[in-house]
TrEMBL record:
Residue stretches of biased makeup (Basic residues): 110-123
This protein's name: Glycosyl hydrolase family 32 N-terminal domain-containing protein
Keywords: Glycosidase, Hydrolase
Organism: Actinokineospora soli
Residue ranges of domain Glycosyl hydrolase family 32 N-terminal in the record: 22-115
InterPro entries the record matches: GH32_Enzymes, Glyco_hydro_32_N, Glyco_hydro_beta-prop_sf
Region described as Disordered: 94-142
Length: 142
C-alpha cells in the first residue's frame, strides 16, 4: 500500500504538508502491516518536485509499473503542482523520470471566490465551492 507520509515530528501541519513523501507498507494478510522504505521522496534542489511528493495512482503496463504522483517545487514556493511519473518492476524500487509529465495550463485555470471571499486558483476548470455558494470566472483573454 502506498500512502501520504508526513512526519509528526515536524509538529506544525504546514511543515508536515510541505515535507510529505510517498510511504509504503506491505502485508501478507491485509490485517498486519509492516512499513518499508518510502516509495518516493522530494527530488533534488531545483527539480519540479523538490518540496513535496504526494500519492497518486499506480498502473501496470506489461512488466513495468507506473506511479503517477503529484509534485510541488520550490521555484513557485510549492504553489504549482505537477504530475510526475516513476517506474518499477518490483513495486519496491521506484525510478523517477525527469521532469513532470503534466503541468496545468495557466490559461485553463479559473479563479474561485468561495463564500469566505478569499480568491484562490484551481488547476481544474471547476471550483471547490458549490456553484450556489461561490462565484467562478475564467481569466481574461490575453
Amino acid at each position: 500500500m502506498y500512502f501520504l507520509k508526513a512526519s509528526r515530528a515536524l509538529g506544525d501541519p504546514d511543515r508536515r504538508h510541505w515535507h510529505a513523501t510517498v510511504g509504503h507498507a506491505v502485508s501478507a494478510d491485509l490485517v498486519t502491516w509492516r512499513e518499508v522504505a518510502d516509495a518516493l521522496a522530494p527530488g533534488p534542489p531545483g527539480s519540479f518536485d523538490d518540496v513535496a511528493t504526494w500519492t497518486g495512482s499506480v498502473v501496470r503496463s506489461g512488466d513495468t509499473w507506473h506511479m503517477f504522483y503529484t509534485g510541488a517545487g520550490s521555484a513557485e514556493r510549492g504553489l504549482k503542482q505537477r504530475i510526475g511519473v516513476a517506474t518499477s518492476t518490483d513495486l519496491h524500487t521506484w525510478h523517477k523520470h525527469d521532469g513532470p509529465v503534466l503541468s496545468a495550463d495557466p490559461a485553463g485555470t479559473r479563479r474561485c471566490r468561495p463564500p469566505s471571499g478569499r480568491t484562490r486558483r484551481s488547476a481544474t476548470r471547476g471550483c471547490s465551492a458549490r456553484p450556489t455558494a461561490g462565484t467562478c470566472w475564467s481569466p481574461p483573454a490575453r
